[in-house]
Structures are given as C-alpha cells and as structure tokens.
Input
Amino acid sequence: MKQHQYYVYIMASKPNGTLYIGVTNNLVRRVYEHKNGLISGFTKKYNVKLLVYFQIYEYVYHALQREKTLKHWLRDWKIKTIEEKNPHWEDLSATLGV
Output
C-alpha cells in the first residue's frame, strides 16, 4: 500500500511580511510554482516566495483541518508557530531542492 504525504505550508513575502497558508500533496512542485509566479492570485500579487514553515500529514483530512485551523488563527499565533521552528525566517525550500 502506497503511503501518501500531504503538506500544510506557510509562505512569506519576507520576515514578518505577508503570509500565505496552503495545502498540497507535492510540496516541491507547489513551492516551485509560487517562486516562479506560475499561479495567478494572492502569492503572485504580493510576491510571497519564501517557504518558512511546513508540516507533513499522512491523511489529507488531517492536513485540510490543520490548514483551516491555521487560517483562522491570529497573525501573532501564526508568527509564533513559524518562529518556533524557523526563528530566522530562512527559506526552507533549499532543503527540498527547489
């Protein structure tokens, strides 16, 4: 049985800048699309290109629930969540080979 992976991720325009929260089953592809402006919309409009946080889930339902939860959080909570794992707001896409 093939194991699936789903990702909840946060991208930013710069440290403490505009944030975008999304979910995908292919984080490398999705980050590449954001970085290269291949998708029209929010991230392209606000130049959101830094992958600053992500979590991996086995089930899409859990990933979607987490995405919805994060989107409803206050901005301060989102920033605290990012900084707990990535205090310097480094672009994590390099660790993925993007």
Notes: Residues 60-72 form the longest helix (13 residues). The beta strands are 6-12, 19-24, 50-57. Residues 70 and 78 are 7 Å apart (CA to CA).
